[in-house]
Amino acid sequence: MLTRARHIGRHRGKTPAQLKKELDQAGCTLIGLATEIDGLRAERDRLEAQLDAAGIELSGVRDDLSAARKQIRHLDAVVLLRDRKIDDLNRKIDVGVKAEHVISKTQELDGEEIRRHLHASPQAAVTNPGTVRQTSWGRDGEGVA
Description:
By secondary structure, the chain is mostly helical. The protein has helices at 2-11, 16-106, 111-120, 122-125; strands at 132-134, 140-142. A hairpin with a 5-residue loop joins strand 1 and strand 2.
C-alpha cells in the first residue's frame, strides 16, 4: 500500500499553484511572441519601404542612364563631324600650300624686272582698284592705287 501511495503521489496531477504558475508563464510567452511578431512586422514594413524607395531610385537612375547614353551618342557624332571637318581643312590646307608652292615655282618673277617696269611706266602702276588688266610680264594683276 505504501508503494501504491508513493506511486499515486508521484503521478498525480499538478497542484492549483503549479497550474497557475504554468498559466502565467504561458501568458508571458504569448505576450513575448506577440511583441516579437509586432517588431518583425514593423521591420518588414520598414524593409518594404526601403525596397520601394530603391525601386523608385533605380527607375530614376535608368532614366538618367538613358539620357546620358543619348548625350554620349550625340557628342560622339559631334566629335566625328568635327574630326571630319578638321581632316577636310587639313587636306585643303595641304592642297593650298602645295598649289601655292607650285604656282610660286612656275611663276617666279624677278624683282628687278618688276621695279624696272613700274619705273618705266608710272601709269601702268595706277589703275582703278576694281579692274584687272594684262601686265607687261604676262600675268593678270590688279592695279595699285
